[in-house]
Write a structure and sequence with these properties.
single chain, 140 residues, alpha/beta, Nucleotidyltransferase, domain 5, 2 domains
Length: 140
Amino acid sequence: MAKENDLFGGPGLKADLSPMIDLVFLLLIFFMVAANIITFPKDPNVIIPVASDAAVPELVDGRVVINIYIDGTVKDVDGNTLTIPQLRERVSRAKSQNANTRIHLRAHKGVPYKHIQEVSQASAQAGVPTVIFSTYQTSK
């Protein structure tokens, strides 16, 4: 009768894998929580439009999130109301701290285009020509 061999070739020795499985589950939970922390704050009062050709931008670093409400009010992620000159100054400061600064524009789906144009022009005047528009992605 042959004896069972373990992973190391010796008789009767077996490896207990339960601590490794526990560790894998803990790492999984850690990365799931960390992934939720990385996202930027979203204002529920801004209903962004739906686009069939929307694409999720890959780079998150250097984004300045700006919300434009239905009445044309411009606010930052902290809820501070900004005028166009204040916005230009805020973007200019962000650009001086990070050369890869981009504007992440969350405009309400019913906001008139002139408000979006004002924010885009202020961003360009501050030296940040890249504007990322928030949209919901739909299935094609």
